Amino acid sequence: MARVLRLICCREHTVRKSVRPIIAHIRIKHIACFSIMRKKILLVDDIKEFRALLKVILSGSYDVVTAEDGEKALDMIEAGFNPDVIVTDLIMPGMDGYQLISNIRNKKSWSKIPIIVLSNVDTPAERQKLTRSQTIDTFLNKPFNTQELNAGLRKSLDKVLENVN
User: Fold this and answer.
1) Strand ranges (DSSP E) for 11-144?
2) Number of H helices and number of E strands within the chain?
3) Coil/strand/helix, residue 75
4) 158: helix, coil or strand?
């Protein structure tokens, strides 16, 4: 990307009084904005304090939007919010994480959104069921290690970039 940016800058300086410098300037702005765009995370958990804590932890690197249950999360997505990754609990009142995951995977336009589960549900059978069926990308237990969460987020975001290219 730096090479492309450098080439565009060189072109801008070599062309005199024409439209090309303006186009090059626009391209530079566009590339710079794209490279620093923060990824959006939709965090779904029924515990307000946990949402607040995780938002503080992740806000340094990501734009974090929260929802208190699966229904509110789906409403946000249907209203046009397009998260790069969804981090959800499984056990919540109203629409739980299982239903949320099912709804997201069953809608074609949302099916590629990576999902990370952060939950207390930690039976080996449950973990295998969710990861084998490829409905989720990462499963982490509460309490969680922030390094594991960041690694899961990076893995999920890399997967998004692979799908784009």
Assistant:
1) 40-44, 63-67, 85-88, 115-119, 138-141
2) 7, 5
3) helix
4) helix
Nearest alpha-carbon partner for 139 in 104, 105, 88, 94:
88
Domain of residue 98, CATH code:
3.40.50.2300
Query: What is the pTM assigned to this prediction?
Result: 0.72
Q: What's the half-sphere exposure (Cβ side, CA atoms, 13 Å) at 25?
A: 7
Can you give the pLDDT at residue 10?
Answer: 38
Same domain, residue pair 10 and 68: no
What's the mean pLDDT in 134-159?
85
One domain for residues 21 and 48: no
Looking at the structure, tell me whether residues 53 and 18 fall in a common domain. no
Shared domain for 58 and 29, answered yes or no, is no
